[in-house]
């Protein structure tokens, strides 16, 4: 980057690249406070004064090494400098200011990040528990196995003791010889006739749809990001021990935060381990290999099955209603026909 001396219309000396200086000044208009007060808020990590967006902007506009060297060489009246230069000089009073700003940003977001992450972990756990504890789902699986064995009677597959999970999705593909009804429709009809209490099994699986949108890989990455983020916070605390009085408030605030954050991360790490075991146990519950049929595949398959099952049952109900109306209409026509014949008999 090339640096030149500019003189603005209001007489301030500009040492930094003009475009860079203008962008920095635009950013500072969004903070709207004296520079010393702003840096005091940074060192105190005061979330009531600066929000995460403002802190992230301050990070983007930290002075580079080249800019700091340039300003160190300035010997004129500092009051004559532009707002950008004055802002950079204020930041330069704080050792490793960018690192401290990143710590501040991490602290601001930590609460909501932890809360959302814990929510996702609990959702996965709930979905696993709901599926494994659903008596109705287990009964429907038994009926599907019985139905499959009945259809395959007399063949090598006619005495199966189980079936692959993805076979659930094939029930809608297998049609009767008249091509009017799928195996899914047949299953729903039989359940409606003999075990109607099982038809609402989806109500046992309230967390399934939300859980199906959660990727365990993303959870693993987020867990690592939280752990590494806290580690960087601790590193900055250690480095700030040599800063002197300028970082006294920063160190005090950071020590308090780390005490709370470490307890939260320990709790989350334990919960994350439980989630991993439960996710594997869900695949094993269906006698699937967790490596080949991971949590995401299990939940996606079950969710699709639920949707196809409910759609087939709804279509059965509509068809039954149409047949009922048709039968009523035919009965009325027969009744009307009978009355007409009776009248003819009387008249003759």
Automatic annotation (TrEMBL):
Keywords: Coiled coil. The keyword Thylakoid does not apply. Residues 1-335 form the FH2 domain. Transmembrane segments: none annotated. Residues 310-339 form a coiled coil. Belongs to the formin-like family. Class-II subfamily. This is Formin-like protein.
């Amino acid at each position: 980057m090339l640096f030149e001396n500019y003189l603005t219309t209001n007489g301030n000396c500009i040492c930094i690249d003009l475009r860079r200086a203008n962008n920095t000044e635009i950013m500072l208009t969004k903070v709207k406070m004296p520079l010393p007060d702003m840096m005091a808020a940074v060192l105190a990590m005061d979330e009531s004064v600066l929000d995460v967006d403002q802190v992230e902007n301050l990070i983007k506009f930290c002075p580079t090494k080249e800019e700091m060297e340039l300003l160190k060489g300035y010997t004129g009246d500092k009051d004559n400098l532009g707002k950008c230069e004055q802002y950079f000089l204020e930041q330069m009073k704080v050792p490793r200011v960018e690192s401290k700003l990143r710590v501040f940003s991490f602290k601001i977001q930590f609460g909501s990040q932890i809360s959302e992450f814990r929510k996702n972990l609990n959702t996965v756990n709930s979905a696993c528990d709901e599926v494994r504890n659903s008596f109705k789902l287990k009964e429907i699986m038994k009926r599907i196995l019985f139905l499959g064995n009945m259809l395959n009677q007399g063949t090598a597959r006619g005495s199966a003791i189980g079936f692959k999970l993805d076979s659930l999705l094939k029930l809608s593909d297998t049609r009767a010889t008249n091509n009017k009804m799928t195996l899914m429709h047949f299953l729903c009809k039989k359940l409606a006739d003999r075990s109607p209490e099982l038809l609402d099994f989806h109500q046992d699986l309230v967390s399934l749809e939300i859980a199906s949108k959660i990727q365990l890989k993303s959870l693993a990455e987020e867990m690592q990001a939280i752990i590494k983020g806290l580690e960087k916070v601790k590193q900055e605390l250690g480095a700030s021990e040599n800063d002197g009085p300028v970082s006294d408030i920063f160190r005090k605030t950071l020590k308090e935060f780390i005490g709370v954050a470490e307890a939260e991360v320990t709790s989350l790490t334990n919960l994350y381990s439980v989630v991993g075991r439960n996710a594997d146990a869900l695949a094993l519950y269906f006698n699937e290999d967790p490596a080949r049929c991971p949590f995401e595949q299990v939940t996606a398959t079950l969710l699709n099955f639920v949707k196809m099952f409910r759609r087939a049952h709804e279509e059965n109900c509509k068809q039954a209603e149409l047949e009922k109306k048709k039968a009523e209409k035919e009965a009325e026509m027969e009744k009307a026909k009978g009355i007409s014949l009776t009248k003819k008999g009387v008249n003759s």
